[in-house]
Design a protein that fits this description.
Layout lengths: L24 H37 L6 H4 L63 H13 L15 E4 L2 H6 L4 E3 L1 E17 L4 E4 L5 E6 L6 E2 L4 E6 L1 H29 L6 H27 L14 H9 L5 H5 L10 E5 L4 E6 L6 E2 L6 E4 L3 E8 L1 H4 L7 E6 L6 E12 L6 E8 L9 E19 L4 E2 L4 E6 L10 E7 L1 E5 L3 E6 L6 E3 L3 H9 L14
Helix pairs in contact: 5-6, 5-7
């Protein structure tokens, strides 16, 4: 970096002591004038020279810029160039179809919605040998078309008659054209929706006391597994003792009336008919009271068979009613003299897991309070909220795949119910699937993302998304000619109409139009589309509209 110059002086080189002889003023003026005149005319001379060169170039080139192919070293002969198709005219298959004869044009395939359908005419496929289209292939295409309204093509369009050609394979490579084979792969069409795991409400038991009372003993706790009929707790309910006493009274009254009737009948004719009818009516009334007593106990969850009363005495009935409904092993642990007859057992009606317990010994409870919640956690419900347009496509029996937010594995199930109404606030429609969870890994009331599988195929014909283009009225791909790599053969790409199916981020299902093994253009396919539409730019798809 140079040092700055300070001060206002200007440094100049020293002057020699030998002074030159001064020239005359007239001589110095003539020389300076000549030099100045020449210097002033130099820009004008340069401009004239450049203009002359441009005129000469324009006269010899017809005022046309060189093409891309000429800049890359491919200089076309003036008399052997097809300006319409950008290839030498001597090899242009569009101008001279005999260079690459076209197959006989096929009619529009109404079944599959494409012209020159390779499913119906497999010999049209650009493959070394004619492929075999099986009934399985045709059935798969029919299922795909029946499943939904697929994007269609215009049957009037004739763009598939065009063939895009390069002068040489090297020109195609320079243009960045690359191909990939058509392949088969599994396909799944589905609707996505958020879902929630919950208990199967048909396998949930909310248990409460049949009568108000006080909790005397609790046998099971939160998180324990229980079996159907297993005792959970004992509640001291006065209504239970009252029902038992009424049954004992009805039993005693019935025995008395039955004895009276037997005595009246044994008296022969000593008792009037009216008295006999009175005693018989009293016996019927006692039987009704006896049945009512048994029903009262049944209503409290203590079923008692009325037929058993015929073989019991009053003392036997009293002993049996004391610990009615309480398991024998528990009854033995209770003191017969001090234990009240008011004990109401609370039992579970099903196998399951106790997921809630809201009680404590000594607590007063009523019939409205849920004391235990027992759930069979091996059976779960999966509920989705679907958009209205998606719900219409979902039916009972469709498979479901669900991944909880807190898990990695995917759960499987089937739709078992679809709501007949939309939520008034969200306008979504609920659908439900059953999930089996024998190992109890899942957690109720958790969320996740799910898919309702609408269509699933083991394999479908697929191509990369980059290969598919919309040319204005039809979907097309560009298929490389089967003889492309042969020496001397035209370097041609065929325009093929296709019918589209399912699509994901990378690939598109082709229902009809190409067959596995054919080579379609992926990278650089936009260049071929531009060439296809080059003559129609600004006019739309001229192939569909007469000019």
């Amino acid at each position: 970096m140079s040092e700055p110059v300070t001060g206002g002086a200007v440094l100049e080189p020293p002057v020699s002591k030998a002074e030159p002889r001064p020239q005359s003023s007239r001589q110095r003026g003539l020389i300076g004038s000549a030099i100045g005149s020449i210097a002033g005319s130099i820009p004008t001379l340069i401009i004239v020279a450049v203009a002359g060169a441009v005129g000469w170039w324009g006269h010899h080139t017809g005022w046309k810029l060189p093409t891309f192919s000429e800049l890359n070293g491919h200089v076309r002969e003036k008399d052997d160039w097809c300006g319409e198709h950008n290839v030498p005219e001597s090899v242009c298959v569009e101008c001279d179809p005999d260079l690459l004869p076209r197959p006989a044009f096929r009619e529009w395939c109404k079944l599959h919605g494409v012209p020159e359908c390779t499913l119906c005419n497999p010999e049209l496929a650009q493959l070394p040998t004619t492929p075999v289209v099986t009934d399985t292939d045709l059935a798969r295409a029919r299922r795909a078309l029946d499943f939904a309204d697929r994007p269609g093509n215009n049957p009037v369009c004739r763009s598939h008659h065009r063939r895009i050609q390069f002068a040489t394979a090297r020109d195609a490579d320079k243009a960045g054209v690359a191909v990939e084979p058509v392949w088969t792969a599994p396909a799944v069409e589905f609707v996505s929706a958020p879902g929630e795991i919950g208990y199967d409400q048909s396998r949930v038991a909310h248990l409460s006391a049949r009568s108000p009372g006080t909790v005397r003993k609790v046998f099971k706790h939160l998180g324990q597994d229980v079996k159907a009929g297993e005792l959970l707790a004992l509640v001291d309910a006065a209504e239970v003792g009252k029902a038992k006493a009424e049954l004992l009274q009805a039993f005693a009254g019935h025995q008395l009336k039955a004895g009276t009737l037997a005595s009246v009948k044994q008296s022969g004719g000593a008792v009037s008919g009216a008295r006999l009818r009175e005693v018989e009516a009293a016996l019927v009334e006692s039987e009704i009271r006896l049945s009512a007593g048994c029903q009262s106990l049944t209503n409290l969850g203590l079923p008692f068979d009325e037929a058993d009363l015929q073989s019991l005495t009053a003392d036997q009935l009293k002993a049996q009613l004391h610990f009615l409904g309480i398991p024998t092993d528990v009854a033995k642990s209770l003191d017969l003299k001090t234990a009240t007859t008011n004990l109401l057992p609370l039992v579970t009606p099903m196998d399951g897991l106790i997921v809630s317990r809201e009680m404590a010994v000594g607590e007063v409870v009523d019939t409205a309070r849920i004391l235990f919640e027992v759930v069979d956690t091996r059976s779960l419900w999966l509920t989705f909220d679907l958009k209205g347009e998606d719900a219409r496509r979902v039916n009972v029996g469709h498979p479901v795949r669900f991944k909880p937010d807190n898990g990695r594995e995917e759960l499987l199930g089937k739709i078992v119910w679809r709501s007949s109404q939309a939520d008034p606030k969200t306008r979504t429609v609920k659908v439900r699937a059953d999930l089996a969870d024998p190992e109890r890994k899942q957690v109720a009331n958790t969320f996740g993302s799910g898919r309702v599988i609408l269509r699933e195929e083991a394999e479908v014909v697929s191509v990369p998304n980059d290969a598919v283009h919309w040319e204005g009225c039809c979907h097309v791909v560009f298929v490389r000619d089967k003889d492309y790599l042969k020496s001397g053969s035209p370097k041609v790409f065929h325009v093929r109409k296709v019918r589209l199916g399912a699509k994901d981020a990378r690939t598109t299902e082709i229902i009809a139009g190409v067959l596995p093994g054919e080579l379609v253009v992926t990278k650089g396919s936009g260049l071929l589309l531009t060439e296809l539409l080059r003559a129609d730019l600004g006019e739309g798809c001229a192939c569909c509209h007469p000019k």
